[in-house]
Amino acid sequence: MDPVVTAAVPASLEVAGLAYAYPDGHQALFGVDLSIERGERVALLGPNGAGKTTLVLHLNGILTAGAGTVTVAGLPVGKRHLAEIRRKVGIVFQDPDDQLFMPTVREDVAFGPAAAGMRGPDLEARVLKALGQVGMAEYVDRPPHHLSFGQRRRVAVATVLAMEPEILVLDEPSSNLDPASRRELADILRSLDVTVLMVTHDLPYALELCPRALILSEGVIAADGPTGELLADADLMSGHRLELPFGFDPKTVRAHG
Amino acid sequence: MHVPDGFINAPVSAVAGVAAAGAVAVSLRGARRELDERTAPLAGLVAAFIFAVQMLNFPVAAGTSGHLLGGALAAILVGPFTGVLCVAVVLLMQGLLFADGGLTALGVNISVMAVVTTVVAYAIFRGLARLLPRGRRSLTVAAFTAALVSVPAAAAAFTLIYAVGGTTDVPLGKVATAMIGVHVLIGIGEAAITALTVGAVIAVRPDLVHGARGLTAPLRLRVGGELIDAPGTTPAPAAAAARSHRKLWAVGLAASVVLAGFVSFYASTNPDGLEKVAHDKGFDKGEKEHAAADSPLADYGIKDISDARLSGGLAGVIGVGATVVAGSAVFWAVRRRRAAGTGPASTASATEPAETGPAPTTSTPSTTEPTATASATEPAENA
Amino acid sequence: MGAGHAHRLYRHGHSPVHALPPHTKLTAVFCFVVVVVSTPREAMWAFAAYALLLASVAYAARVPLLFWLKRLLIEIPFVAFALLLPFVAQGERTEVLGMSLSVHGLWGAWNVLAKGTLGVAASVLLAATTELRELLLGLQRLKLPPLLVQIASFMIRYGDVIADEMRRMRIARESRGFEARGVRHWGVLAKSAGALFIRSYERGERVHLAMVSRGYAGSMPVIDEATATRAQWTYALTLPLTALAVCLLGWTLS
Hints:
- Chain B: Residues 341-383 are annotated as: Disordered.
- Chain B: It comes from Streptomyces flavofungini.
- Chain B: It is found in: Cell membrane.
- Chain B: It is a multi-pass membrane protein.
- Chain A: This is ABC transporter ATP-binding protein.
- The structure holds three protein chains of three kinds.
- Helices cover 37% and strands 23% of the residues of chain A.
- Chain A has helices spanning 52-59, 82-88, 96-99, 105-115, 120-133, 149-161, 179-191, 203-209, 227-232, 234-239, 250-256; strands at residues 13-21, 27-36, 41-45, 67-72, 75-76, 89-92, 167-171, 195-200, 212-217, 220-226.
- The radius of gyration of chain A is 18 Å and the shape is globular.
- In chain A, the strands form two sheets. Chain A has a six-stranded mixed sheet with strand order 6-7-8-3-9-10, sandwiched between helices. A four-stranded antiparallel sheet of chain A has the order 2-1-4-5, covered by helices on one side.
- Chain A is α/β, with parallel strands linked by helices.
- In chain A, a hairpin with a 5-residue loop joins strand 1 and strand 2 (27-36).
- Chain B is mainly α.
- Chain B has helices spanning 10-35, 39-53, 71-78, 80-98, 106-131, 136-165, 175-204, 239-244, 246-269, 271-274, 281-293, 301-307, 310-341, 345-350, 359-362, and strands spanning 58-61, 64-66.
- A two-stranded antiparallel ribbon of chain B has the order 1-2.
- In chain B, a hairpin with a 2-residue loop joins strand 1 and strand 2 (64-66).
- In chain B, helix 6 packs across helix 13 (310-341).
- By secondary structure, chain C is mainly alpha-helical.
- Chain C has helices at 16-19, 22-38, 44-60, 65-71, 76-88, 103-129, 132-141, 146-175, 186-213, 230-253; strands spanning 93-96, 99-102.
- A two-stranded antiparallel sheet of chain C has the order 1-2.
- In chain C, helix 2 crosses helix 7 (132-141).
- The interface between B and C is large, with 102 and 107 residues.
């Protein structure tokens, strides 16, 4: 899934000069610029409080930019296209219990497409397809709270896939997963034919899944480049409070990859 | 325990159902105005919280324990409208899922436990919070008083309903002492827990305490979980307007608290004045059984039931009725003036319980046909 | 209440009663209870007839008798109250086993016990044969305000999640050697309750964000529709209609 980009296809995501302050005056973003081409998988790294979640909430118009613009597949994020934007930007939140708010898996996955007006057999097919993509089709009638954490996270991904988004935004996808679930999720994400922006602290996971990484620090993009190179740059990493797990060397991993 | 079927006769149950439906309809509108599209998830989660917190056991002594009823807590934390909705939904689900509380008595249960408790508690809390000097201690005191009064108020409301539609003739005079006494005890427990809980929330997230909006100056919005605070939820600074009406508040509140509290207490502590047969043996026995069987904090439904009938009840009801009417009048007056003066949306919403106040009493048309309650909340949609 | 709420009453099965659309069942149970409550208490045989009716429904639903009776325990506190009535009620008195009882109170106790028990029994049958999800759909079909159904739906979805958080907080307290033994410890428990509220509320805000992110604009999309055929309605309403006949008989005979 390398970025096979032709000039005609607009970038999946374009952020320019984005600045934002919360109503209480605390400013979180100070001019973010980034661009993600269609089909890319990009990791967004950064220490706690760097503004990662704030940035994510701008991508589908939940927060409105104080200055600057966000463009999704050529469509500016704003009141006029909000419904369309929210269909195109699929955000998977950190806690699957927040994401899975309906009584059964099926209804939860159907929520997005149904909100967009889909009904009947089309809806059913869409639901089953999305659940199939994450390998959860057999759990369609279960209530979400009867699933394991890893299963819930996969269903959470399916709820977003069902909307056939332009870009999939994952907030800490690997948090709280055991190694097996972590790997299963990685396999699923790799198999998807969709642009991915992954917000994470999990540097090995970022390296495993995303060829390219961005470092968000103090409200701006501090670095943008191939994930392996960024992780290997010790000064850059420590300058932004990013630490590799003990015994993990990105160079040797790259050699394997 | 909640009121079961067959306890209140059909016509009165139907009227209570209509009243409850009216109150729920008003609350639906009110909540939507305050929370707009966030109503469903927020009220749903708060309902789940109330449901869960009712299972939190507070040990009293010697192995007994009690738990929160939650009406006052809901009112103070999320406001009267959302509070009524949350408690009403909890009652509905308890009736349907756990057979707890009769389906035909749903109207009675909602009127008493959701509407009366919540509205009385909110009116008192709001009023006291304005009267007392600013600060956390005052809010705690206000929460304590609000919860303390709300429980006997609900008991009194139940007494009124029972007096009109009870299916068994329990003597009038024997009621007052135990009725109010037991409920003051329960109220004290409820008050302590409510005040402590509200205090705990104020210490961490003062912005989440609805009843304290515009009072804990300067109000800050914490950006703790990062996923919060859509713009526009910041309460407008109502402080300036509030101050100018303090006197009015003082008079109105003093009057209603005196009426609600003291009139019913007076009636209860001096039962001879109303009825000479206070210390009947059978009755004493009944009271003892309560003391033994239930902690003071246990569910109050059964006590509501056992002690009911006119004399003391009427006094309490007059008190509560007066509270609601007086409180509503004050709210209404304040709101009118403020609307004329400044009129930002959020100040209006903060002082709007005036609408819930009279709702249960005014929206009781003469629908005595039992099937009128076919779904206690059904008419809400058209209302 | 209390522990009684930890388990749900639903009992999985494939009986004709399970298969009925939820709104027909809700309507049937509600009408049945209304009929029961409107029956004159003097018509004792009518209540026996109601009990028989319910028993036949339980049989059709393949709800085991023991299961059903156990679930009736929820009304115990109020049975205790009903037993008090003959002692405290007014009016002429009668001697039973050496005790002076009020005739009126006896009737009252009978009235409350019979109607209350039938009400609980009917509700238990409803809850035992109808899934949570179905109940919500039924309420929706019965034109309960959609917002109210949504609130109930969220409450059901997150009730367990929050109860679980509460349990974890208790374990955390106990792990640090704290055990609430009396009023002195209320402060700590109340802090937990306060924290639980904040967590619940913040979760509500996050859930709202998740909903908005998937296109929510104030009303839930219609995904499932419960529909009922005329035959199903007829089947469901057999219960209250038979009961109504009994009730009318009760009024004319007494």
